[in-house]
Amino acid sequence: MKIVHLANHVRNTGNGIVNMMIDLACLQADAGHEVTVASSGGGFEELLARHGVQHIVLRQAREPWRIPAMLAGFNRLLARIGPDVVHAHMMTGALLARFGSVRREYILVTTVHNEFQKSAWLMRFGDCVVAVSEAVGASMSRRGVPRQRIHVIRNGTIGTPRFAGVPMPASPALAHPNIVTVAGMSQRKGIQDLLRAFAQLITRMPGASLYLVGEGPDRQAMEALAEQLGVAGQTHFTGFIANPRAYLAEADVFVLASHKEPGGLVLSEAREAGCAIVATRVDGNPEMLDGGEAGLLVPPAAPEALAAALEVLMKDEDARRTLARRARHNIESFSAAHVCEAYLSLYERTLDALGPRPAAVPIRRPASPDGVVR
């Protein structure tokens, strides 16, 4: 198949949508398909090239004045590639692929990554709409997407091409006992709840440390909250770390305290690392943790409940080890290869269901040195 993935960028910034798309594109190319990623570019271009994935610069933005250039660029891409499948991972790409071509000769697949955004309803324009969890699928159904067009494919990162052949980073030499999270520094990720829970915990475990791995718009506010709560000395804001595996390997307890989390990739990473996991019972988190078998689930925005769960695991080594073992049980479905196979199967079924489409005749136009289709 000829497959085109559309996304706003391919920057290595910890964006789960981009990471998932990069894994998918690389593995599809490894499986022998002709794969192209169209975006504004970024640091993952080198990895894509190593896997034989072509990257074409196609700047996608919501500003109305950019629409003519986007449409022209998208139609040049179609003429050059003649794709069987266009897979849109973000709202702009979904609209472009649905309405940007007068004579559409490809199927459009959309993946709903951030269902909590109001613009997520625009992903309904796909010939098939992929939800990253059953919770997201139910939400899109309530928004009016016919259930027969919704397909659930959970995210998975085990065996990701992004870390293939990359040695384990040097030990960060974390203090113990510790709590680790890998998340954007934002209100949505519940960092404020984790800080308040930690403030309660250290009154009973004064030697504990908290490591916040990630960057985000609310970092300054979270640092100020840590000072206000009196835990700044035991709280470590590391900033963004592209390969956080060493932090996961040294975590005593891993926490994801999100208020909204459709299908967090980091839970797959934490399970692979064999972490004892505590996460909020929201959206796709229970599904990523086998309904609570592979991690403790607590209510969102409830620092007291989070502190209580953390205290149990931090003080009971047997309970912590048991939960860590359960995290690694039944994780085969969280492999990146499994996700790739599921998407390829969906592409094939959708192409068969919609019937043969006229073949687009590719126009062989060389790309300029910067990768822009002329």
UniProtKB/TrEMBL annotation:
This protein is called D-inositol-3-phosphate glycosyltransferase
Which Pfam families does the record match to this protein? Glyco_transf_4, Glycos_transf_1
Query: Which superkingdom is the protein from?
Result: Bacteria
Q: Where is the Glycosyl transferase family domain?
A: 179-329
Q: Please state the Enzyme Commission number of this protein.
A: 2.4.1.250
SUPFAM superfamilies recorded: UDP-Glycosyltransferase/glycogen phosphorylase
Q: Does the keyword Aminoacyl-tRNA synthetase apply?
A: no
Which gene specifies this protein's sequence? Answer: mshA_8
**Keyword annotations:** Glycosyltransferase, Transferase
Q: Which residues form the Glycosyltransferase subfamily 4-like N-terminal domain?
A: 15-156
Please state what class of enzyme this protein is: transferase
Lineage, top ranks: Bacteria, Pseudomonadati, Pseudomonadota, Betaproteobacteria, Burkholderiales
Question: What GO molecular-function term can you cite, just one?
Answer: D-inositol-3-phosphate glycosyltransferase activity
